[in-house]
Amino acid sequence: MLLFIEQCLNGLQLGLLLFLVAAGLTLIFGIMDMVNLAHGSLYMIGAYFAATFVAWTGSFVAGAVLAVGATLLVGMLLEVIAIRPLYGRDHLDQVLGTFGLILFFNELVRIVWGPAGLRVPLPDWLKTSVPILPGLQYPTYRIAIIVTALAVALFLYILVMRTRLGMLIRAGASNREMAGALGVNIKLLYTLVFGLGAALAGLAGLMQAPILTVQIGMGENILILAFVIIIIGGIGSIRGAFVAALLVGLIDTIGRAFLPDLLRLFLSYRTASAVTPAISSMMIYLVMAIVLVVRPQGLFQVSGK
Amino acid sequence: MKGFVTPRNVVVAALLIFLALVPVYVAITGDGFLMTLFTRILILAMAATSLNLILGYGGMVSFGHAAYLGIGGYAIGIFAYEGVGSGFIQWPVAIAASALFALGVGALSLRTRGLYFIMITLAFAQLVYYFGVGLDRYGGDDGLQIYQRSQFIDPINLSNRTQFYYWCLVLLLVSIYLIWRIVNSRFGMAIQGARSNDRRMQAIGFPTYRYRLACFVIAGVICGLAGALLANQTEFVSPAMMHWTRSGDLIVMVVLGGMASTFGPLIGAVTLLVLEETLPLLIELVATPFVGAAASRAAEYWQIVLGPLFLLVVLFARGGINGLLESMRRD
Fold first, then answer.
1. Which DSSP string do the residues of B185-247 spell out, in sequence order?
2. CB-based contact B134 A220, cutoff 8 Å
3. What are the tens digits of pLDDT across the range B141-194?
């Protein structure tokens, strides 16, 4: 039972990280009607920046803040140079153009940081674990991830639903020509939204960095998962992305943890251990297929899309 | 006859003659690498040609086409591993497996549109990819060595590299011809009509879902066949042959060569793969006067040039190379 709770927390943590990536992706799609495959590259860039800045400042928190800021700038620069000409183009063009950007960023990172993976050390106060239930210790850092991501999700909700900027974002999403005609600087708004999405992806990347190795191509698997999430949640819906991200995070983690035992009830030990890795990797894709069969437009369909 | 000699047709004819003469050149110079490269180009051109049928003519942007390469390839690999070497068993199974998979994926994904379609095809390809990774008996992540190419009856010998090359060329040309026939048939017209306006095609009585599904399966089968060829060429199958970036490469080939054009995917495949081989040399050549010996190091990073090149093609050459050649005619 304790193991189950621990795995649920791990799933929650993965889901929240995925939400940060998926939120940016779905925001950019919902508002600019733009498919951005290079979003995973921004996740990777965030992690690499964190590795550099943490080593440079000697403080994890300061390094993380700098890394998020730097990723935000890279995102805005990227939008102005490469993404802006792709607005209003066919989705196929956008897929292809940003696919090229992935190659570009992977190679750029190889040139700047070298081909070997990097490690981001945790400060001592995050290396501890805290008892959350009698008999259950949980790493402080993972709790910190959960808290930070929840705070960011709340911030995002307030930003989009309660502020003037959020109002403009929503206006731009529902009718960009009308918003432009009413004097909203659409170009600037798009750059800001893209930068925000980049910063969210970068934040997810840097929070994942101490857990995994920082390496080239680390954003690609996350990117595909984030796409699965926004498909399940309904493209353009942040609420959908939140629900779907938690769903995917929990299914993936709990599946990997408990599927072997479950399958052993039905199959022989050898067959079960042979097929589980494959089945647990496939599971979220199966969930997506089922969701699409039942609801082709995702769980939370955005009206007018 | 005058209307027939256009820049595009001249380039296509020259390319076909060149492809037909590659083994002759290789026989004279003994340059085995060139043979390997161009066999690979022919096979991937066949995959790209099949993708063009759904992507270019049908408007169905499949981001998971490499899955069929893997399915076709693994059909060969698994049979060879289990000791069934006959191509008369391997190949029909490769075709049937691709067709079945395409039928399943198509039936589900064709219910969706736009970005959903792009992503659901990608997700299904990932499903097959991870399935391949999980196939412990057949090498899992590391892949599976094939010790013997498919066996056919006597005059056909795939182990002969020259003969294998010509089989690839023949199958490629047959695929191109077949797709040309399909596209110009009533069926093909209905598919292209559904690309422009699906609802209108339905309104005038075409069951477009079934038409598109049939189209999707045909493309899958041709690509599965290309996968069978690829497995025979490399004598190796691994999940890497259906990695999602491979699907991306196939889309690049189609768009680079020219979507919805008969020879576009072939031109695109030749251009992309030759570029991948020559770009490092080119960078070294250009960079040497400026940075001296460091140029050979710079050449390792050729992808930093290739990536933005895709973006430029998308932005400035919408019809791909085929479109550029056709616009030369008007000037």
1. SHHHHHHHHHHH-HHHHHHTT--HHHHHHHHHHHHHHHHHHHHHHHHHHHTEE-GGGG-HHHH
2. no
3. 888 999 888 888 878 888 888 999 999 999 999 999 999 999 999 999 999 999
* Dihedral sign (CA B313, B257, B220, B207): positive
ipTM of the complex as predicted: 0.85
* Cβ(A276)–Cβ(A260) below 8 Å: yes
**B1: three-class secondary structure by DSSP:** coil
CA distance B238 to chain A (A): 15
The mean-pLDDT minimum among A72-86, A211-225, A274-288, B309-323 falls in A274-288
Q: Given phi > 0 = left and psi -120 to 50 = alpha, else beta, which region is B30?
A: left
CB-CB under 8 Å, A35 with B61: no
Q: Which residues of A touch B307 (CB under 8 A)?
A: 100-105, 107
Output the six-digit token pair for A285: 């894709």
Architecture of domain A2-294: Orthogonal Bundle (1.10)
Distances (CA, A) of A8 to A134, A137, A146, A257, B61: 17, 14, 12, 10, 37
DSSP state of A302: P
Nearest CB among B120, B136, B304 relative to A231 is that of B120
- Asked if B295 and B287 touch (Cβ cutoff 8 Å), the reply is yes
CA distances from A154 to A9, A68, A227, B65, B161 (A): 19, 18, 22, 39, 62
Is B115 within 8 Å of A29 when comparing Cβ atoms? Answer: yes
Q: Which domains does chain B have, with CATH numbers?
A: 2-330 (1.10.3470)
List Cβ neighbours of B148 (8 Å cut-off, separation of 6 or more).
Answer: B80, B85
CA angle, residues B144, B145, B148, in degrees to nearest 5: 130
Residues A110 and A218: their CA atoms lie apart, in Å, by: 13
Q: Which ranges of B64-138 would DSSP assign to H, the alpha helix?
A: 66-81, 87-109, 114-134
